[in-house]
Design goal:
Elements (H helix, E strand, L loop, with lengths): L2 H15 L3 H12 L12 H7 L7 H6 L2 H6 L1 H4 L1 H20 L26 H16 L4 H33 L4 E6 L6 E8 L2 E8 L4 E9 L4 H6 L3 H9 L3 E8 L2 E8 L11 E9 L2 E10 L1
Antiparallel strand pairs: 1-2, 2-3, 3-4, 5-6, 6-7, 7-8
Helix pairs in contact: 1-2, 1-7, 1-8, 2-7, 3-11, 8-9
Length: 300
């Protein structure tokens, strides 16, 4: 999820478990801490895409990092309250990240698989709004403050539950309309009835939108999965390697720019986004020895 969601959820969770401002701060800080790996972006997009939501979002750090403040502040607050507050904030961050489609290596380092529930978008106003309203109203109304905070979390849980049900309905409806051996459904921003889908049949990916309101399936594009020398050479670029490490449904297309070949790789679960997000482009030129990489670009 986005930093605002993590901040708001950290404050709400902190206020629920304690009136001690210091303990609330521990929850808040640790609800943001897993995204410390965002600093990888300062090195390169490739490094970020490869390792974001890795070790800092795994169970090892979840259990170990809260020990640091718990030990440091054990005499002032005692060990357990600090550890529990920090653990709560850190765990809440990981749980919220699991609800969207990006992928979170929650079992790292035991398992490097990126898990996702694909129920919410990274920035989801239906998660943010209940948190903001609960905090704003609680500033004016002291009596019943705890109820408001709990109710905001119940609303979010109910919303996620509804999205899980609708996702299942969208997937079942899609199976009735398109024959394939792999079906994946992903949330579209600010939408309940329409879901983005990626299905695979043999050596072909099909993407599009399944609309539960109109009871229709709209096909957006089809991608044939078949490597050749040009495609294999593009896989040697750092940009493509990073994207393939991240991708669940990688596909490519080949274009010509004069005498230069352009191989465009994209992660299909995000293919509905504008501006070619989550794509890697490689420019190659043919020579007597084969293909030579001239340039590459990763966009996330």
């Amino acid at each position: 999820m986005d930093p605002l969601t993590h901040t708001l959820s950290g404050i709400v969770a902190g206020k629920l478990i304690s009136k001690n401002k210091s303990l609330i701060w521990f929850v808040l800080v640790f609800s943001l801490l897993p995204d410390v790996d965002m600093f990888l972006l300062f090195h390169s997009k490739e490094l970020f895409l490869t390792y974001h939501r890795g070790i800092t979002h795994g169970i090892l750090f979840l259990f170990l990092l809260p020990l640091i403040p718990a030990i440091i502040f054990r005499k002032k607050f005692s060990f357990f309250p600090v550890y529990a507050s920090s653990f709560l904030g850190y765990g809440l961050h990981i749980l919220l990240d699991l609800t969207n489609q990006y992928g979170t290596r929650v079992l790292y380092p035991l398992d490097e698989t990126a898990y996702n529930l694909s129920l919410t978008f990274i920035v989801d106003p239906y998660v943010i709004l209940p948190l903001i309203l609960a905090l704003l109203i609680s500033l004016k109304i002291k009596r019943g403050q705890r109820f408001l905070l709990i109710f905001s979390l119940i609303l979010i849980a109910f919303y996620i539950g509804i999205k899980a049900y609708l996702k299942g309905e969208a997937k079942e409806f899609l199976k009735q309309r398109i024959e394939a051996h792999q079906y994946r459904v992903y949330p579209l921003p600010n939408d309940f009835a329409r879901w983005w889908f990626v299905v695979r049949h043999s050596n072909e990916y099909i993407t599009g939108v399944v609309d539960l309101f109109t009871k229709r399936v709209y096909i957006d594009n089809k991608y044939t999965i078949k490597d050749n020398d040009l495609v294999l050479k593009s896989k040697e670029s750092k940009s493509v390697k990073a994207l393939l490490h991240f991708s669940k449904h990688p596909a490519f297309e080949i274009r010509k720019e004069g005498d230069v070949n352009v191989v465009i790789w994209r992660e299909l679960s995000y293919a509905f986004l504008p501006e070619d997000r989550f794509t890697a482009k490689v420019w190659l030129k043919e020579n007597p020895e084969g293909y030579k990489i001239l340039n590459e670009k990763l966009k996330i």
